[in-house]
Amino acid sequence: MLSSQRLGGMEEGLYKPIDGLQGPCKSSEHDLEHRKRMPCIQAIGQCYPDYQFTPETFEKLYCSDKFPYDEKLKDWVRKLVHQSGIETIPSSINPEQFDKEPIPYDPSIPVDEHNLYRRAKDPWCPTTHERSLIWEKFAPKLTIGAAKDVIREWGGDPMTITHVITNTSSGTHMPGLDLAVVDALGLKNIRQRICVDNTGCYGSFSALTVAQAFCAAEPDAVVLVTCTEVCSVHINKHSKDRSEILGNIIFGDGATSAILSAGKKGDWQMSPIRMVTAPPSTRDYVSVKLTDQGYLLYLSKFLAPCLHTAVKPMWRDMLKDSLGVKDSHDCDWAVHPGGKAVINVFHSEDLDMNLSKDNLEPSWESLRHHGNLAAPSILLVVKACLERTAQTEKDKVFVIGFGPGMVIKYYGLTRKE
Question: Angle at Cα 195 formed by Cα 191 and Cα 197, nearest 5°?
């Protein structure tokens, strides 16, 4: 029997709003047993498109007559792109089109990566459908490329992979990227595949959480995880809010991947992924909304201060929970490269972490060469951290990221005993 409940009959004010940070929450009875079942990260892969955006790319686009900005806003963009800490951003879009005049609108001209912005009816501002055509072309290619790369890094038999999890937040298509991977790689022994989409910059944490659940439930599971974004299709000349422009400028294209399994002694074992949620007043600090001109990517100027406020009283407990340590120098740090202001939060003197630029070099390096790839970014940083543990002589890595909500997620990596 169908429910008779309707929106008009729902009582308002029945529930009290959340006040303060919520989480992390865990089982008081079974957490220790749950930890023993956590998988190991066996390998991490990556894949990027052929083109790159540079600060000069954005300057020639945003500070020309192509975009309807006044001089004050153009000066702000120039300052932003040259002080962002970003040197290159991978892009599926050929930036050479920004050096040319717009093409007189002709719907018979096929949309591709060389003319997406040039051929638009509203010059330099394609429709959501036109943008989606490019996303549908490159998102599967990047996902498959990252999947092949991690299998090469892993060195195992792809026919032993039992689960496939894909993640994206920059576009959509059904059937999803999970089937694109399974079909392209000819994976024949997949018990479950699932798309964990629309989770933004903490997308890899969400996908890995599902992978942890599969591995905990089935000890012989071998899980392939991919995270993919194609953000270069969402540049919008009608974005005049500085938080929207920032979202247009720092996000790039790419895919990362991981293989997870029970592992053996000496492998990098994960701790359970934890989540901390900020109050409702922060819900729009990081957001993505669908418009007639693609996705509107919004990063509030209050994002970094909010992250600072949340992390300050909790970081020691986070370290103890995930790694069993309390000192910031007892482990290496993998911080989501969400932007210069975000990484700088972890250098703040009043947090008492005493982390140097070198301590966070993997995050700074990822930002420098890839910008913010959203979900794929943190796995790049984790990969770099794991590779340099021989140099740092650390056997623990703390991983932390954040995303829409505002939500903070974290976990630890230690050598399996």
Answer: 160
Q: Is the pTM of this model over 0.85?
A: yes
Instruction: List all residues 6 or more positions away from 368 whose beta carbon is below 8 Å from its beta carbon.
Output: 85, 86, 87, 88
Closest Cα partner for 359 from 386, 327, 333?
Answer: 333
| 3-class secondary-structure state, position 124 | coil
Instruction: Output the furthest CA–CA distance in the chain (Å, rounded).
Output: 67
CA distance 336 to 374: 9
Pick from 410, 388, 389, 408: nearest CA to 399: 410
- pLDDT, tens only, 42-61: 999 999 999 999 999 999 89
Q: Tokens 């079974």 — which residue?
A: 30
Q: What does the DSSP assignment read for 179-217? A: HHHHHHHT----SEEEE--S-GGGHHHHHHHHHHHHHHH
Contacts of 43 (CB under 8 A, 6+ apart): 150, 151, 153, 154, 155, 258, 259
Question: Coil, strand or helix: which one is 26?
Answer: coil
